Amino acid sequence: MRRAPVPGLLLPPPPLLLLLLGLLVLDRGCAAQYSSDLCNWRGSLGQSRLAYPGAISGLTHESHKKDVEQVYLRCSEGSIEWMYPTGALIINLRPNIFPSSSKHWIVCIKPLKDSAGANIYLEKTGELKLLFQDGDHSPTRVHCFSFEQGGLYVEATPQQDISRKITGFQYELINKGTASDLHMVYAPCRPCSDTEVLLAVCTSDFVVRGTIQNVINEEQQQDSVIDVTVNRIYRQKTKIFKAAEEIGVWEGQIKTLLQCGVKPGEGDFLFTGRMHFGEARLGCAPRFKDFQRMYKEAKDKGLNPCEIGPD
């Protein structure tokens, strides 16, 4: 006897139903390649086969040593944390920029402090260039490259016990067309030209007038931390400089490489720079009287790239 249809329930014809089910399966397969957060990825190969991976010890490479997983990220900055590394990861950084404009950007990566368990390579047409070797714990590890140079390939190294290994790094995109960005990455200790200073004033994450109160050299991190008292804030995208209520001034810290040899000095400076991996990094920093001169000269000639009050 033929069963009556359920009222209100419309089923598609069998061929269409099979097609919809097939598309659903495909959609799930594609989504599995993406992190739920398109800026960051955290996971492990074959993680679904481990019920409680955080509680397992004695894991080895044997079960997934040949696995390769694609990771797709869409942001200008973020992080990778690969737990219990086995096999390899192919990191696809595809930010929301036109493909034709990718040549104007560079990628910088910085391994996390306790990163271990894998080597990080730059890969292009099957050739690998080692960027960071497993076990390299240099505190100043940052490497920058262009999209034309290739993509990131992370390969686990043989380990007897991977249960406590996490390979991790941060990444950032920097605009090659911005002079202050390139100065910070490639020549942080070189004095800026007048043109670079004026461009830095227009494009930096922070621009302040202030004095150097103290310089703390961090030998282990190979950085110098500059304590700055601020007289005027022209721009700051994040709260680098904050009011110190007890003394009625604004204060903040800026970092630069130890090799630059920054020392406390009298007089006012114009400090510019960028946020780089969550830290305020020094860009151009001329004496304020020199900035006043170059700003006036450019303004008189109508060559100022942007307006800013010099006093």
Automatic annotation (TrEMBL):
Which Gene3D superfamilies does this UniProt record tie to the protein?
2.40.50.120
Q: Which GO terms describe its molecular function?
A: hormone activity
Q: InterPro entries from the xrefs? A: Meteorin-like (IPR051998), TIMP-like_OB-fold (IPR008993)
Residues of the signal sequence?
1-32
A GO CC annotation given for this chain: extracellular space
Keyword annotations of the record: Disulfide bond, Hormone, Secreted, Signal
Family the UniProt entry places it in: Belongs to the meteorin family.
Q: Which domain of life is it from?
A: Eukaryota
Q: What is the lineage of its organism?
A: Eukaryota, Metazoa, Chordata, Craniata, Vertebrata
GO biological process terms held by the UniProt record: energy homeostasis; positive regulation of brown fat cell differentiation
Q: Which species does this protein come from?
A: Eublepharis macularius
Q: Where in the cell is it found?
A: Secreted
Q: Which SUPFAM superfamilies match?
A: TIMP-like
What is the protein name for this chain?
A: Meteorin-like protein
Main subcellular location = secreted
